[in-house]
Amino acid sequence: MNVKERLTDVLAQRGTTLDTCSNGALCQALLVALRAYQQELKPAQGQKKLYYFSAEFLVGRLLRANLINLGLEEEVEALLKAHGRSLAQVEDCEPEPSLGNGGLGRLAACFLDSIASLGLPGDGVGLNYHYGLFRQDLKSGRQVELPDPWIEDDSWLVDTGISFPVTFRDCTLQAKLMDLEIPGYRNGVCNRLHLFDVEAPAPAPRDGISFDKTDIAGHLTSFLYPDDSDEAGRLLRVYQQYFMVSAGAQLILRELEERGCSLQSLDQHVVIHINDTHPSMVIPELIRLLMERGVDLERAIYLVERTCAYTNHTILAEALEKWPVHYLEQVAPQLLPVIRALDERAKRHCADPAVAIWDSNNLIHMAHMDIHYSSHVNGVAALHTEILKNTELNSFYRLYPEKFNNKTNGITLRRWLMGCNRPLSDLITEAIGPAWKTDAQQLQNLAPLTEDAAFLARLTEVKADRKAALAQWLREKQGLSLAEDAVYDIQIKRLHQYKRQQMNALYAIYKYLEIKAGHLPQRPLVMIWGAKAAPAYTLAKDTIHLLLCLQKLVASDPQVSPWLSIVMVENYNVSAAEMLVPACDISEQISLASKEASGTGNMKLMANGAVTLGTLDGANVEIAELVGRDNIYLFGRSSQEVIDLYQRNAYRSSDYWQRGDIGYLVDFLLSPELLALGDPQCLARLYKDFIAKDYFMALLDLRDYIDTKERCLNDYEDRTAWSKKMLVNIAQSGYFSSDRTIAEYNRDIWHL
Ligand code: 26Q
């Protein structure tokens, strides 16, 4: 049956037709039809199978991604068109599963796409959060958090009917195995994302995202990382982690047995990838399960160490998980003897307390357990891996130099170019043929077109169209009206002080005051932010408040509003990113050097023809090497300078505040104009932080940032020169395909 027949069938069973059904009904019917397609495909086969363990898989909407990979996108688009419908409108009815916080979760989703597309045997293992992260409403100048349910009667989830018992100290819960299918790109392969769920999930909380955190059986899979500002929240996270890894480990052993392989050859047939420390308990749990099945401790350790590999995604100390022993006693006491044995063994190997698993304060260091008992440890960009080796994890690097390696992150261009920017994707294919879709390095064949004026003009036209589409979307969603001939300057990522959205806000104040003083820019500037703040992160929420105040201030000032727009996008998520990424001119990647492990938004924006304005941090370093200094705008102190400043405790933000050329921008936070619009408490907290602390050194780089951004905006006016920069960025973005990243993981670590 072809897709048309299947779709008409499903609609007929539901008593409707392609001409009469609603977009929502059409969306559901397409989903059902595609699931039937996918079920006929086969998982990739091989001697050895990868299990990619991650607490987050930020998969985004699946309808278009699956259509593309099944090779059905054009057929379905044509079919819908023939009936006066559009895929874009149907797609808009699909709820987005928000099963991740940000970069780490989205990376895991891109990786699954590439693993399937390269035909490698590998599945994801995670949790089936019913209400996702949270939906963000912006109301009265603040972020409001709401549940973000995504599971409907017709869902991409496949109930496998399989479940595993997970035993906690106080109860045993069944972990139900629900799967999302992950089709490869036009290769007949369909791998799986295994999402474990409780049997009797509790309903969503009525208002907001607070719920009874002691109701483990009901709420274990309600939210991703529920608020961890209290003990009950942190304990619930440990329950989630143990639930995921215990069920996942049981699944691995079951599949090993089904394949007729002995436990003794685990490392020949299985690779476990540990995505940051959230799944680290898989190490002691798998050892425990092997011992239950008769393998002795030393042999179990040997097998598990050879089976596991660990990726570190951050050098921020607060994100490195350390669990108090009494949490584990409460949740899964059966792990403690194993962890004790692993710790003693590690201490026999090296007595340095810096590498202890179980420290003298009775904290279990998950990353330390991962490094001692995995065969590979990797960072996610060249600079990040060097910092891990030389600074943060230096004691470990000296112990195990052979374990450390770099795997620079990547993104799937199937979603982040073909899916979100068809006009650009088609233009590229017209110029260099379609081979770049499976071999992204071929994007380099675009390079000679920097001399082709007609091509450059078309590229500029596509960008203008995507900006108009974004403006239209923001008009419908948020009632905004944005100049279409403006420069679109975009910062989209989780809100965190180290990413320095607050520094960008000070630039907005600078521009506002310049315009007020009669120094008009050459063309309007649209500054856009999209960001969620962790519910308990006060300064991040204050920054959202500041941005919303500035948005109001500028919009209500007729002298300024023709020249400047400030936009905070509500509920920034994967679907919003798919609108924003194609429309961006200037990609803001302004983290304090040394703090952003890699970044992946930088790669998505680059591939869509944005020019980066950034620091030499994370993968920006590699972007700069690829495009050359003429095609990126770099500013700010180097990572080494920043690391030195921290080591010598030598940064004083007040010194910078006292300088006449930037201090007035900070002072504006407490100006009558802003105080009239905002909450004095929030604004004062931000103000105080800038002058008395500024831990992430926004004031250090602010002058250089303003000057560089002005130079960038000036260069934008040479429209031909700018279009060449766009093209060079697109042509060099092939290196950042996650197909390349996954091929490297496989070559150096997994050996599938
Ligand atoms: C840890 C302990 C307690 C509560 C929460 C957490 C927690 C949750 C999520 C810690 C970290 C995360 C997410 C981290 C993350 O997204 N890191 C990003 O990973 C990307 C993919 O490698 C990189 O590109 C980004 O630079 C990095 O910030």
UniProtKB/TrEMBL annotation:
Similarity-based family: Belongs to the glycogen phosphorylase family.
Single Gene Ontology MF annotation: glycogen phosphorylase activity
Top-tier EC class: transferase
Keywords (A to Z) from UniProt: Allosteric enzyme, Carbohydrate metabolism, Cytoplasm, Glycosyltransferase, Pyridoxal phosphate, Transferase
Subcellular location: Cytoplasm
GO CC terms in record: cytoplasm
Necessary cofactors: pyridoxal 5'-phosphate
Name this polypeptide is given: Alpha-1,4 glucan phosphorylase
NCBIfam families, per database record: P_ylase
Residue list for modification N6-(pyridoxal phosphate)lysine: 604
EC number of the protein: 2.4.1.1
Organism: Candidatus Avoscillospira avicola
Task of the protein: Allosteric enzyme that catalyzes the rate-limiting step in glycogen catabolism, the phosphorolytic cleavage of glycogen to produce glucose-1-phosphate, and plays a central role in maintaining cellular and organismal glucose homeostasis.
Catalysed reactions, semicolon-separated: [(1->4)-alpha-D-glucosyl](n) + phosphate = [(1->4)-alpha-D-glucosyl](n-1) + alpha-D-glucose 1-phosphate
GO biological-process terms attached to the record: glycogen catabolic process
